[in-house]
Amino acid sequence: MATVFIDGSTGEGGGQILRTSLALSCITGRDLHIENIRAARRNPGLAKQHLSCVKAACEICSGRAKGATRGSMVLDFEPGRVESGNFDFDIGSAGSATLVIQTVLPALFLAGEASTVTVTGGTHNPMAPPFDFLCETFLPAIGAGGFRGSCKLLKHGFYPAGGGKITFEIRPTEKRSQEIFNLCEASKKFQIKSRIYTAKLAEHIAQRQEKLLEQSSLDIQDIEHIEVTDSDGPGNCAMIWISNNERTTVFTAFGMRGKPSQEVISEVVSLAGDFLASGAAIDHFLADQLLIYMALSKTGCYTTNKLSTHLLTNVEIIKKFLDVDFSIEEDGSVCRVSYQPV
To answer: Is 310 known to be catalytic?
Structure first.
């Protein structure tokens, strides 16, 4: 089969292009050549987190990589056959553990036997899905399509210290119905809850954030504060859960030095409020992550509240590997994405 050539500066020009390309190279068995890796980022090229994704892809299929060095903007990847097993990856930094897991998940779901993946690194990082999103939003959504697994948080890891650990149990993909990924109707009945994480920080930070959440425009039924005791370093994030009988959507904003609590809470409330006002069924963070599973299933549709560059870029990368297409229709504040046979 011909090598797939990918321009890493396409669309959003970030690490998602690398992760999707590695996943689909493993699945299809097609060699990958990718240039301009993370060209749109302030520090372009491969960082520790992305090298961990490459290493993970190599390990699950006995693949070979050329150019897998810090700062490299060119990578050649030759996949072998994907095999199930017990895998353990250490990023060696606060790089996102959830993104490393998401790199190998699609291929391991198709491996035929159960697998376990454990990753040490960041579990709650800005610019990446936190563990709570992986567990409570992402997993149930792909589970509707027969891609079933479970995950556990073994240790919290906040940016910049890292040192957290998560483990993921992957079950072989089951036969799926033609109704999968029918995530188009938003529920009119839901509950809103919130969680505040603090680690090695003054007590007044959580108290201030809780008060701001109570004063927000959202009808938050319950606010939980978790004082994290197992973290290697300080950390803070505020989360909002929007839940109904069918699904849970998790939104997160991260605190950091010099960022006032008012800004943290305003950010997460705005994310949740925009989603609720749109009338969409799933949020735009989940939307681009579902595409590869819809493509593998050859069916599905959803509505989301934003047509992100991540989504549009992922569509183009998937089409480089698979003979699939997607229909994208915008109607006011809602965007409908559907699998289309070619």
So the answer is: yes
